[in-house]
Amino acid sequence: MLSGAVDERLSAGSVSMPAMMAIETAALVVPVTALEFLREECLLTGEGPILTVYRLQSQSKASTSLSVLLNYRIHGIRPKPQTGDRRTSDPDDEVVVFGGKAVRLLRLSAGGQRLETLGPLMELPDWALDVRWVSGEKGPLLGVALAHNAALLLDPVEGCVLALCSCQEGCLLYSALLLGGNWEDSVLVGGTVFNQLVLWRPGGAQPGGKAPVERRLPGHSGVIFSLCYRRETGWLASASDDRSVRVWGVGDLGGSGGGCGDPSPTCLRVLYGHQARVFSVKLSPGRVYSAGEDGACLLWDWGGGGRVARTLKGHRSGGVRALAVSEGGDGQGRWVATGGADGGIRLWRVGGEEEKGDAEGGQGDAEILVDLGFQGRGVPKVVGVVGDGHWIQGRVVVNTDHGEVYLYEGGRWGLLWEGGPEFQSYCVMEVLRVRGWGAAASREGLCALGSLSGGVQVFPLSQPGAGVLLRAGPGKVHSVLWVKGQAEGQGRGGYLLASGAEGLVHRWQVEVEMRDTGLALRVEPLRPLLLPPCAKRWLTAVVYLNRPQGALWVCGDRRGSLLLFEESEHHQEKKRGAGEEHEDEKRGREAHNGLVESHDEKGDVVVGEEDEEREASRAGLTLQPVSSLFGVHGKQGVTWVSEHQGLLYSAGRDGCVRVLRVGPEGLEVLRVQRACRGMEWLERVLLLEPQDSDEEQRAQEPEGSGKEARFVIVGFHSVHFVVWDPVRQERLLSVPCGGGHRSWSYCPHQDGLSMGQGALVFIKQGVVLASEPSGEAPSRAGSLDLRQGLHGRGVGCVCRLGVVGEAGEGRWEVLVTGGEDTSLTVLAVRPQTGAVRVLSVITDHISNVRTLTAVKRLDGRTDRGTDEQTESLSALLVSAGGRAQMQCYRLLIGGNGQLGLPSCQVIQVASHRLDDQWERMRNRHKTVKMDAETRYMSIAVVDDGTESVLLALACSDGAVRLFSVSELRGKFELLWESFHHERCVLSIAPCSLEDGHGNRRVFLFSAATDGRIAVWDMSTVANSDKPPTAALAPTSPCLTVPAHQSGVNTLAVWEEGLGAGHTDGARIALASGGDDGQLSVALIRVQYQGEGVGGSRVCLQVQSQWSVALAHAAPLTALRMLSPGLLVSTSPDQRVCLWRLATTGLSQQGAFVSHVADAAGLEVWIEAGVGSVSGCGDRGWVVVCGQGLQLLKVTDMEDGGNREDKTGRKSCVGGREECVKVSLHQRCLDDKTT
What we know:
The protein is an all-beta fold and 1234 residues long. Helices cover 3% and strands 51% of the residues.
């Protein structure tokens, strides 16, 4: 869970406004820039100016948080070193936090549950790169390393500088490290812009002079981002922009001798392993830890020649910005924490013997392959594993081309069963784990083999002599599949399906029984299934659904189709009532009683020697599919079908996982999930269980709730077997097996938490190989999410869907964000606590998601004017972006049990790309694509009718396009396009009016890079009773408004109250923001001139126009109307400004400094039941997105003066928090100290 809760709402960002409004942060998700462990008890994290404490011994939950650095980001956390024995009961710890030009002292008490500030915030004249505790005569002092290669000694109580020293080489530093227990012996290590390290002593400067450089360490070819020193070994580690980590032997730095270590330091090792820049490095005994922009944390084995011993990956794109490693010492290893650019925090437990292993906790690229040393006749062809977890704990079953079955158990191979000639050269095999008896109860299984002549041999692994030979027709058995029964008491058996000739699938129910003579099989034939005519007519996947109205079978065939068979009891009950008995029932009863059974020459029981194909051809003796999705997984076949909580999950060799349900009309595809690029051969879908560290995740889902489960994808990527997490976009396991054209069996971990900890058994060139899993327990091998990450790259757009849950703590705001990582994220934000929960991640886009819009619907009706709190909501979401791609989804948001936790079901409605036709052209490489790669820049809803929704899009190729999307037809249709602007169209916005006769007038505003805004009259298209066509659309705009000198990035349009609804016309307010940083507002008068087609003819005229030339110090990227006449704007200058539109023009109501960098999008709304933000007591909400996400609360203040925040501390609205500016000219010591 993402927690952006801030216990203390600082008034530093709250700005006083003439309208007595205040803005404060309600939730924040930004890149994590600082991490530090406090012993083995707590983890301190810094995101933006907020310091958060996680208690590691209490399910690793955030215990408290506090905003401490005003508008600065936290870049370092330094706990005060403890000397001597300390009490373990209710200890107090002092912590110094720094970032930017700010330093602050804090106290952590009550076992990590309470944070409080000690003194004011100290602002320095230069950027602080490192802060260290040093000893002083009257108490501890702070040594600060500054960005311009200087250091100062700071009194944290008085907030004054005691000493200042600069280096003779006054260059800019990218990183610095201050070492030493006192100021006189301290050593500063700086990473310069000249790609080298310099070492000098701040306390060694002459009075009135500067300190010389005493050591210089060249070698890096890029700037140095991070430094770490370990005194026990005398090692200094540096991480650089050149993707390398260097370890230097420098000796004792900052010791009592006051020297700079060895006079001739050497580079001990250069470590290359990262794919991008390295941001952070840490040292521990025998280990080097590094993290970088590639999102990986590498554990380097110093004793193993500097190789990568383990890779920890758990963040989405954007890289790892912060790294912390605990000291360990409790006998259980050490903690490793990583903070990502996605705002997520991951925690691993490593150390001791686990660090010495070669396994990888996050990405298993270095999996050890073990040769099981197969011993037997012939060449292994098919392999299967019975058991959970490690293959050593289960049974490995192998079938050879000699028709023999071998069993690997206890490190030895043994002949299990020997088949006849019909099982030689060709044989298909499948094993099923069942509940057994005695010591081998967990490893008991059933083995089924299909032959070339229609024979199907079934036997238990513990007693092969109790086998049964079944007949699946006279022809070749294409496949055998086991299906576990869902009824009670079926744990010792299952259903067996064998695909024979001409699409006939024979079925049996097989159960293992314990008799006096040993194990025996009870076989009951079932009605066969008949597949539709097609090529490759056999089953490859099947799942059994036990429903009250009858059993359902969902099957996938080799042609890529999904089929639904219904096994109703009505037909059989009718025949029983007439005194008849089904032939299959009769034969099954006779087989069970021993009436129809014979023995072959090997003594195996042969059931049903008659021609079943002839009997099945009789009318009514086979089950026909009641629903089918032909070729839904392409032509290469379906590989997997499973069911969970009422939803179906299918995978195929088209690279897609489809989520389906059984609806009234049959099988319905809800959405499609693609794997990573290049991973086309998918084999399985593994469902993940929730982590039990999160109390909310442990809430039990009701049976058949229809909530989509969290899953990972198993398949092949080139020559590697891969387990892929589509949500985190990371590879959990990778085994070099040679590709998918081989027999294999994957053994996931039995608890379902760490899918990357499973093992693979496969056959390669006649050798049975197995991957060696890590052997670690899941709680130690896997990672723990302290906070889930959002988009690792920039968030370009945000859209609000509505609110679910009860008022107060149970209220959740549902948002959707789209980012540069090509994904959509559905979020639930609890404003009261700042908690943020990721409900779903959609990865259907192939390029950047630039714009979003949503139509909220309840029970199929449009409901855009109300915002009442409900237990569930439904919305139609449309996203658009690069490669001219649009996606439409139906989102169903609902509560979850008594906790009221929201859940999300995503249903894919339609998809569209402008160049789909060109992409489908043959020999398109011989043609020239005339249009450049079009991007959708902005989207707006023109009309949200019940049958279809009209959408207007601004396109980079200079066009304004009008689409309709129908949920019933499931597709987009291009209705109209105009190239009036002849240049990139950046923004678009609609406005709807009513004339004096009650006719609706719809206007569309489009803005381009030339600074002009065009107004289009779309009334005829929107009001037409017939399906909209291009003939109804306008050919040219009815008005053009010059507003900016350059591109217009954003528009906000609303109807002014004066004159609205009268016969003499209305007024439209048009606000715009551009690349020139200007905010412009134009009042457009709409005059109705008699009756025309579809209503009155209109005349538009600009009545007045105002502008603020420098509304922001950077391009204005987003503008929204919070209430009529009240605008909210934002820009990459990280300011959120409120503007009031009056009769005299625009006036700024205040500005709030946001903690989100590169602000790109806004979303605003008024809280339900509160009203508009125009009078006392009203409240509104603003969401800013960019490099993160921030939720702001806008409130009206009645007193206009001092106010009390939630912590009871009195603060002034609009005033800054008490702050001390540290001046270098006001020192408490004389020059002799310097």
